[in-house]
Design a protein that fits this description.
The complex is a heterodimer of chains A (265) and B (136). By secondary structure, chain A is mainly alpha-helical. Among the domains of chain A are: 43 residues, no CATH class; 43 residues, no CATH class. Chain A is 38% helix and 5% strand. Chain A has 8 helices and 4 strands, in the order βαβααααααββα. In chain A, the strands form 2 sheets. A two-stranded antiparallel sheet of chain A has the order 1-2. In chain A, strands 3-4 form a two-stranded antiparallel sheet. In chain A, helix 1 crosses helix 2 and helix 2 packs across helix 3. Chain B has a single domain, classed as Histone, subunit A. Chain B has 136 residues and is an all-alpha fold. Classes of the chains: A mainly alpha (265), B mainly alpha (136). Chains A and B meet through helix 1, strand 2, helix 2, helix 3 and helix 4 of A and helix 1, helix 2, helix 3, strand 1 and helix 5 of B. Strand 2 of chain A pairs parallel with strand 1 of chain B. Chain B: TAFs are components of the transcription factor IID (TFIID) complex that is essential for mediating regulation of RNA polymerase transcription.
Chain lengths: 265, 136
């Protein structure tokens, strides 16, 4: 039941199987060192683990409330003021000046910060018991030095096209702050001008198409290539046969000339 | 005008005190390693490029744990002071400062955390009541 707080390695320690256990074990070492500095010689295992759990929950609760304070102010990164507000929220026993918290609008004069500074100056440092491996600096991913790629980060793959240029939208119905629906935004409208014809008939080919013809070996045989059939590419037909798909009558000589010109290319 | 100047001076003093405190944070190494704190902060969504704020969180947590532990120590010493029978036990008292669940639960209760063990569990709500008052 009782575990010695000395710095000798305990035989009851088990290796961590996942990330949570690993961080929990490290936190347990730190908490036991703090308890030793306070004056305890020994501890029950369950008591130590409970205190460690409470410490981790406290840390996470501090972080979460600080994050929600910064998010409420339209920010993603927390600053000292968010942290001070979070510390105020987390204090259960109260602190000096808690009743007049927002009277003078100066959060940095908070007594919580003063208490922390007094704690730092009065308490001796507690070096961590086990050696800590510093994380190796990750090798910076080399981004190709093209003009488009310098702007966007490594999280966007190379094979994606670059972002469209932002075209200024000069419509008269604009909101005060420049807000507009996403569909009407300039980035989306800029895309539409390129493939506009395709969007008219999505998935359908044009009805009137020129017939593609070519000759094989320059001989008498003339092979007609159907405009849109992929399977039966080669079919021998005579020009005189009427074909229902094509509205325009086919003139054979002109087609031959057309074919000849194409083969030259 | 004077009031504004005074408040401005007061703010400058506070800012300088605060910046001194933050500078002293970099000299002070908290008991909880920076990487561990960063892991828990990242788990909760806390984003901050400033290392001093991470140290501040570590120091705040260390202060909290130290306060809880010192309260538990007070409870432990108070219990031992009440149990002294012989003079020999006074010397043994210093060696037996053990963090028990009992003391810890009492000190955590003051901080709003309930980790009290139930004394016993019963299978019936009327267990332990006076038999005359039991409703059957």
């Amino acid at each position: 039941m009782k575990k010695s707080k000395s710095k000798k390695q305990s035989n009851t320690q088990q290796e961590a199987t996942n990330v949570e256990e690993f961080s929990f074990n490290i936190t347990k070492i730190a908490v036991s060192q703090i308890c030793k500095s306070v004056g305890f010689k020994r501890s029950q295992i369950l008591a130590l683990e409970t205190l460690t759990l409470v410490a981790t929950k406290y840390l996470e609760a501090l972080a979460k409330s600080s994050v929600s304070f910064s998010n409420a102010a339209n920010r993603t990164q927390s600053n000292l003021l968010d942290l001070t507000n979070a510390l105020h929220d987390m204090s259960q026993v109260g602190f000096r000046g808690a009743s007049t918290l927002y009277d003078n609008n100066c959060l940095l004069k908070s007594s919580v910060l003063e208490d922390l500074s007094a704690f730092v100056s009065s308490t001796a440092e507690i070096p961590f018991a086990k050696p800590i491996e510093r994380a190796k600096e990750r090798e910076m991913e080399k981004v190709k030095a093209s003009t488009g790629n310098l702007q966007r980060g490594a999280h966007i793959p190379e094979w994606l096209p670059s972002f469209p240029d932002v075209v200024s939208n000069e419509k008269c119905n604009k909101r005060v702050n420049g807000e507009e629906l996403w569909e009407n935004s300039s980035s989306v409208l800029g895309c539409q001008s390129d493939g506009f014809e395709e969007k008219r008939n999505p998935g359908k080919l044009a009805k009137e198409r020129a017939r593609v013809k070519f000759r094989i070996n320059g001989g008498g045989k003339r092979v007609q290539l159907n405009g849109y059939s992929g399977n039966n590419l080669f079919s021998q037909t005579k020009d005189e046969e009427p074909e229902a798909e094509y509205k325009k009558p086919i003139k054979s000589k002109e087609n031959q000339n057309r074919v000849y010109k194409r083969r030259k290319l | 005008m004077n009031h504004n100047q005074q408040s401005g001076d007061a703010k400058n003093d506070d800012d300088s005190a605060l910046s001194d405190f933050l500078a002293s944070l970099m000299d002070y190494t908290p008991a909880i390693p920076d990487e561990l704190v960063e892991h828990y902060l990242a788990k909760s969504g806390f984003q901050c490029p400033d290392v001093r704020l991470i140290r501040l969180v570590a120091v705040a947590t260390q202060k909290f744990v130290a306060e809880v532990a010192s309260d538990a120590l007070q409870h432990c010493k108070a219990r031992q002071a009440a149990v002294i029978k012989d003079k020999r036990e006074k010397q043994q008292k210093d060696k037996h400062l053990i963090l028990t669940m009992d003391d810890l639960s009492k000190s955590l209760l003051e901080y709003g955390v309930n980790v009290q063990h139930q004394d016993y569990f019963a299978d019936d709500p009327s267990t332990g009541r006076d038999p005359a008052s039991r409703e059957e």
